[in-house]
Amino acid sequence: MRKRFILMAGDPELRAAVVAATPEGWGMTEATDLDGLGDWQEVLLHRFMLLSLDDDPRIEDPIELIDTLRREYQLNIAIFCLGGSQERRDAARSARADRFFDRDTGLQRLPEFFAQFGW
Question: What structural domains and CATH numbers belong to the chain?
């Protein structure tokens, strides 16, 4: 299985920071909704997802997206949420996202994520 992850964020600065932190050998799939990722089988081929919870009109409702992945697709892909208000984080937690970080902390932890999922 290839080393791939998903980035769902509309902010070009966040994208650039993630690209800069991505180690060689990893592929990044970008999307703004689940349709952009393909069928659930395509999502399953990724090791984790970085999902921006910041208000961004380019990203479909992230809470609904998490709920669809967990309830409808029944996938257990790791979902790391970046940013967002406490209210959005609580909603994402209820939808069963995995971890929550403010944007800067999440970016600092990216090397750890790549190492953890680099099997």
Answer: 1-115 (3.40.50.2300)
